[in-house]
Amino acid sequence: MSEVYRTRRTRLRERCNASGSAAALVTRPANVRYLAGAAPQGAVLLLGKHEDLLVCTGPPDDRPSQGRLDEALRVQALPSLGGDPAVAAADLAEGQRADSLAVEEHHLTVARHRAIRSVVPRLRLSDLGGAVEQLRVVKDEEEISCLRIGAEIADQALGELLESILVGRTERHLALELERRLVDHGADGPAFATSVATGPNAGRRGHRPTDRRVEEGDFLSVCLGATYRGYRCEIGRTFVIGTSPADWQIELYDLVFAAQRAGRESLAPGAAYRDVDRAARQVLDSAGHTEGLPALTGHGVGLEIDEDPQLAPSAMGKLDACVPVTVEPGVHLPGRGGVRIDDTLVVRPEADGGPELLTITTKELLAL
């Protein structure tokens, strides 16, 4: 894997050099992990003029869930626990005779930025911007393999929940059980806070579980994800509890399913982000659901659960192959509940079979 990380750092260095920066300081943890293999708490990565260094407050943690550090990368531990690795790294860059340093201004606090300037006043600071995030958009097959395993774990956890008795249990209890099952099946942990929503809460994006108990006839919507070797996936499904679905539930479910299918089928290399969003959104719009729809139809996933690209009405850009994204339309009817269906897929060309579905739990409207 050392070659993979070295290649990633080389690509970033080429971007920095092209913009006139001799060195770069990476502080955002997910970006550090992407370039170094691991991101110990508080660690930063210096892409130096002559040598790359991981600067941290102490020896790196060797737990597998924290990643495996690139063995070719030298680690510089601070002599004092009170020091700031970012400030120390800037000082090291100046020591390598760099005259400029690109920093992640979107991640650095103002206080930290000022501290760096005070230590290296002669070093010209520039903005690295989202350069690393842009490199992270297209995944290699090793990254996709981690996402695929994470999706399998999430599918397993959800499948086991569906086989248990649900009536009378609270949203909060079900969410905690799902997160425990994720770990039992080999996940590092949940990819985000698990959402379980019942009855009038169902279908709300990002709903935080409450003490409301599952009742007969409820919609039950679940959204969960697993983290595996740092990579995060997402799945969301909606079910009916205990009885045959009511006509309005079937109608609403079929509508959201049609929107989700339209979004999935529009995923292809070269497809505009906004066109994927439009494909799903217009199905809901045409049925009169124009108010209260989610701000986006989906987003990228990887070392963070919400990455670029954003599949939204105003998003600029086009999809590439090997980009994992979610497609997650939903409709919530105030006071009644709603439906959300959410999959993680990898964009693939038609010659390779089209979009690869990672989350495979049935999307049939089940009565549990």
TrEMBL record:
CDD domains from the UniProt entry: APP-like (cd01092)
Boundaries of every Peptidase M24 domain copy: 146-348
Key words of the record: Aminopeptidase, Hydrolase, Protease
The UniProt record lists the keyword Flavoprotein: no
Domain of life, per lineage: Bacteria
Molecular-function GO term, any one: aminopeptidase activity
Domain Creatinase N-terminal, chain residue ranges per copy: 8-138
SUPFAM superfamilies, per database record: Creatinase/aminopeptidase, Creatinase/prolidase N-terminal domain
Protein name in the entry: Aminopeptidase P family protein
Origin organism lineage: Bacteria, Bacillati, Actinomycetota, Actinomycetes, Kitasatosporales
